Amino acid sequence: MAETTTTTVxxxxxxxxVRREPLETLEGSFLELEHQRTGARHVHxxxxxxxxxxxxxxPTTPRDSTGVAHILEHxxxxxxxxxxxxxxFFSMTRRSLATFMNAFTSADWxxxxxxxxxxxxxxxxxxxxxxxxxxxxxxxxxxxxEGVRFEFEVPEDPQSGLRYKGVVFNEMKGALASPQAAVQRxxxxxxxxxxxxxxxxxxxxxxxxxxxxxxxxxxxxxxYHPSNAYFYTYGNQPLEMTLxxxxxxxxxxxxxxxxxxxxxxxxxFKRPTTLREVYPLAPGEDGAKRSQALIAWVTVHTSDSFxxxxxxxxxxxxxxxxxxxxxxxxxxxRLGTAMADGSGxxxxxxxxxxxxxxxxxxxxxxxxxxxVVLDTLERLAREGVDPxxxxxxxxxxxxxxxxxxxxxxxxALKVLFSCLPSYxxxxxxxxxxxxxxxxxxxxxxxKQGRWFDDLxxxxxxxxxxxxxxxxxxxxxxxxxxxxxELGRLGAEEASLSDQDRQRIVADALRLKADQDAKQDLSVLxxxxxxxxxxxxxxxxxxxxxxxxxxxxxxxxxxxxxxGVTYLDIRTDFSVLGPELQxxxxxxxxxxxxxxxxxxxxxxxxxxxxxxxxxxxxxxxVQSLAAVEDxxxxxxVSGKALxxxxxxxxxxxxxxxARLEIDPPRLKEIIAESATRLESSLANLGxxxxxxxxxxxxxxxxxxxxxxxxxxxxxxxxxxxxLGEDELGDVIAKLQTIRTTLFTQGALRIVVxxxxxxxxxxxxxxxxxxxxxxxxxxxxxxxxxxxxxxxIPEARTAPVPVAFNVRTFKTIRYTHPDAAALLVLAxxxxxxxLHRELREKGGAYGGFAQASTG
Length: 853
Description:
- There is one protein chain.
- The protein has four domains: 10-181 and 198-261, Cytochrome Bc1 Complex, Chain A, domain 1; 286-406 and 424-474, Cytochrome Bc1 Complex, Chain A, domain 1 (2-Layer Sandwich), CATH 3.30.830; 544-680 and 723-770, Cytochrome Bc1 Complex, Chain A, domain 1, CATH 3.30.830.10; 810-853, no CATH class.
- The protein is of the alpha+beta class.
- Strands 1, 2, 3, 4, 5, 6, 7, 8 and 11 form a nine-stranded mixed beta sheet that branches. Strands 12, 13, 14, 15, 16 and 17 form a six-stranded mixed beta sheet that branches.
């Protein structure tokens, strides 16, 4: 671990500045502070970014699977001392310009982050978040609503049958139904016996009813204290103003206490172990090859930024892409179809976990999977890791360091998560953020000899703290769980007196009355129209021609990108017939995961890793604003450092002009795609339901269902049934898609890059376009699909929760009522539906959205 300066270098208000360092990559500074009286810690990233962020997190280390940390996360957001309304968090979503608001419960911490570009909004949200976390009401009814409660099937009828209700109770039923969740449970139980990680921090539905309101309150009193709090801020918001607000509203009301949420090192195994876990499978489904085998190790301390960086590099070298040696060996074994859930490095434990394995295996082949992993690691340790693959991973780290993207999460929170293990577990937070020194040390170590080969041996081959995890489907699991739940409820109901029954009825009616009661939301801070900027600077663009005779149009958006170029190649897929359109989801994967220009897929994967920040492809359907129509685009997207532009564009050229598809590789891609979809049904349930409902209204909806919905799943299932010798026709169709879409006159290219890079990119794109054939195919659009039969429909899936959707055909974006409809959808989501579905019904989510083109 890098050395840390611990002496005080200054003060701000009631804080000692423990460390202040430059952060060149962010063009700013790193400050580490400690509150003098309470011991609260604070990391601040001072930079010019106006998307300011705040987070506070608390180490929360549950000793059981009642979900106390997770339920507490919900309940603290259900009213506080200064803001005594039922749902200040959700109420603020409709009176804020936040770019992000959420709360997370991890295995051993709970976090409350937000970000916003509006200075007043930042202070408003800060007030609400601080009061919610440190001074929540923790009302018993909120505990029952968000956690779990007894209620009769018909709330006012004490003879209608006792049931469990509660938001987290229902959420976790869905969350734990997937194979991924079963793997995660197995990791915690197998590798960390006796520690907090062996429990389900989110809560096990069979244990959640054991939690009491008083236990929840006690957990908050201990864990949500400033002496156990870690604060984080980022951006150009004045730090002094933020610290003063935290001091005034929170810290001035506390004294330092001793809070022990430390997690000891796990006692290392003397020999490897095996653990078996199950997940639900729908009755009647074939579970013969639906198991997973994961070989998992406990490795380095995540607080050690250097050792963690080394393990991250090693994990990416071994598994990061389809050409990585351990990944390739596993897939080539044909024992399974895709990497097991949990493969790779997991750094959200005090000691990092590395795993590798396969899914869609026969349970009896688990030992064979383990042998493939161990044999491959032994060979790599003996023969040596390819230094070019290490270089490619280090290139990716450099790319991630340069790229400042808000996609997925605000960049500010990505910065926090990159240093969270060190911050949370007592390491050097600055080194984790500014890893140049660790990287320099790693490069120096590599030059001394077989460093990564020795790392494989030390952390994996010679490390006995290993477990073989076998996760298998069980078609009777759901029924057993349901029987146990009903049995417990039956026993509870049998013990109820008439007085007890009336109390449960009265509690339900009181909760309903509270949920229906009008709230005084005026206590919450808000923004006035004068606080909201009404003008936004447009992004300048320039259209230039590229290719022979300027046949391709290129739209350049010159922006400060920190030396990264982003490129989209767009083409119209409406020229494809329905049969070829059904293959577009597969083509999206094949295009970026096959061989090209005389190189196999392994060599292409290594070029992608060495020269780009990633390349992807997808079919997209976009509504037009003014007319009842839509645009059908197939988009190839990529990004690269400016110094890698030449090999980046050469690679794109090879993929779209010289793609090579062979049956064995195509079979692997199909199998992996089908497996991924099947194992994600619980996560995709809402998406599938929405798309199926929309398919009954419009042609656009029907097409989207084929590209992203249930129709896509069925096509992939059918393809997965084909043998290698039956894929010739599929390959021919995939190549027809490519040669039809990628012609000189069919492309529209969009580039975002530094102003100085425009001439070079234009020249490279001219070469790319010149490598394509001239447009000599029929350019007429295929007929658009008809909407499906608009009848109510239900589909079954092996998940213990339901996803229900209803759709209505409305208006286009340019209609005078479009703005009102967008506002109405948000209003319904945050008020009526939130109250009726989540607060009263106990559903995890209720949504409304308007799509007007």
